[in-house]
Amino acid sequence: MTTRQDCDVLDQEDPLRELKQQFDLPAGTIYLDGNSLGVLPRETLGRVQQVIQKEWGQDLIKSWNTAGWIDLPGRIGDKIARLVGAAPGELIVADSTSLNLYKALSAALRISLEQAPERKVIVSERSNFPTDLYIAESLAQQLGLRLHLVDNVADIAATLNTDLAVLMLTEVNYRTGYKHDMKALTAAAHAAGALVIWDLAHSAGAVPVDLNGAKADFAVGCGYKYLNGGPGAPAFVWVHAKHAQRCWQPLSGWLGHAAPFQFTPDYQAAAGIKRFICGTPALLSLAALECGVDTVLAAESLGGMQALRKKSIALTELFIELAESRCAALGIRLASPRDENQRGSQVCLSLDAPLHEAGYAVMQALIARGVIGDFRAGDPARLDEVPHILRFGFTPLYIGFADVYDAVEHLVQVLKNEEWKRPEFNTQGAVT
């Protein structure tokens, strides 16, 4: 079994270790929740202060031109494009993931229904992130379509038929960390005559993504997880070049107009991806997001996303090894794929009976020890099939191998000493 000393050596030999200096991490904290909210880059505070004090405070409205505010959605979009296999000018930063999914799914459905009106089905996974399903259900009701949810990855193939309009998947599942084969599934959906939308919320900045290489149609993603953009950071949307000039999105706001400052009463869509902007962008949040994206781009000189992925796999493999060897007898089981090629940059653990219901309290006890992960509730009626999970995200930019070892040691102590039984860990907060 890997020892703490082995982990210290791995950290010393890690070519990416210098990237941790980009972040302001609290002392004594092992942060394994970057798949929910990334940590604060050191550059963010100064950059946001500059926007507030100089660009807004002194230059006022002139900064839309003098500071390039108007160009930020595209400029940051081009930076994110380098992380997800998109070309310059194909990806824009705007709004939230939910709003961007509504735009992208609306556009995809319009294209599909114009080409084949008989296609009436949207397909996704029952375990997809709920906001994706809510948006799809809303659009299905509006358009007289049907949302079909599969329970298992293997069931997707049977839905790729002449009824399918759009296949909507999250590349890395938020609960289990399962990672789809984007290229293969996109090709299979296209062969069936359907379009594909990919949610990259748990992919962008975490795993290598090649949207153009996979010939995907649409993609969305958020800025506050692995891109370290801060709480509520703006999201992004990408459209394949073959669709960009012909697609229509329903939130036709003024900044997505071809000439927004002509203030004409009729709407004419801007060229390409710019039509996916709706309203005025949130400049303070954009400034913070750009700093976060730059922390990921800093890895380019060290091997880029491939190097980050290599370390991510090593970190998650180590965590699985240690958790299974030290915690299996204490009631812990792996809930993520064992195959590294089918796993994103997170590992999820479930609890055996009689600890089924203790997941939230176990996570709170870990957080009290300075190990921050998160809890995701399962189905109370089917805990054997859909269990409560302890979810741990591994961001290679600032997580080291010794962090992984120490996190498992804390988990062992929480379980052995039954610290999770303390009353303060069993009072559930509004956010889990």
UniProtKB/TrEMBL annotation:
One GO molecular-function annotation for this sequence? Answer: kynureninase activity
Q: What is the E.C. number?
A: 3.7.1.3
Q: In which pathway does this enzyme or protein participate?
A: Cofactor biosynthesis; NAD(+) biosynthesis; quinolinate from L-kynurenine: step 2/3; Amino-acid degradation; L-kynurenine degradation; L-alanine and anthranilate from L-kynurenine: step 1/1
Instruction: Give the matching SUPFAM superfamilies.
Output: PLP-dependent transferases
The protein's annotated catalytic reaction(s) are:
3-hydroxy-L-kynurenine + H2O = 3-hydroxyanthranilate + L-alanine + H(+); L-kynurenine + H2O = anthranilate + L-alanine + H(+)
Task: Provide the cofactor list for this protein.
Answer: pyridoxal 5'-phosphate
* UniProt entry tagged with the keyword Ribonucleoprotein: no
Keyword annotations of the record: Hydrolase, Pyridine nucleotide biosynthesis, Pyridoxal phosphate
Q: Which of the residues bear the PTM N6-(pyridoxal phosphate)lysine?
A: 225
Which of this chain's residues are annotated to bind pyridoxal 5'-phosphate? 97-98, 129-132, 170, 199, 202, 224, 254, 280
Question: What function does the entry list?
Answer: Catalyzes the cleavage of L-kynurenine (L-Kyn) and L-3-hydroxykynurenine (L-3OHKyn) into anthranilic acid (AA) and 3-hydroxyanthranilic acid (3-OHAA), respectively.
Assembly, in brief, is: Homodimer.
Name listed for the protein in its UniProt record: Kynureninase
| Organism, scientific name | Roseateles albus
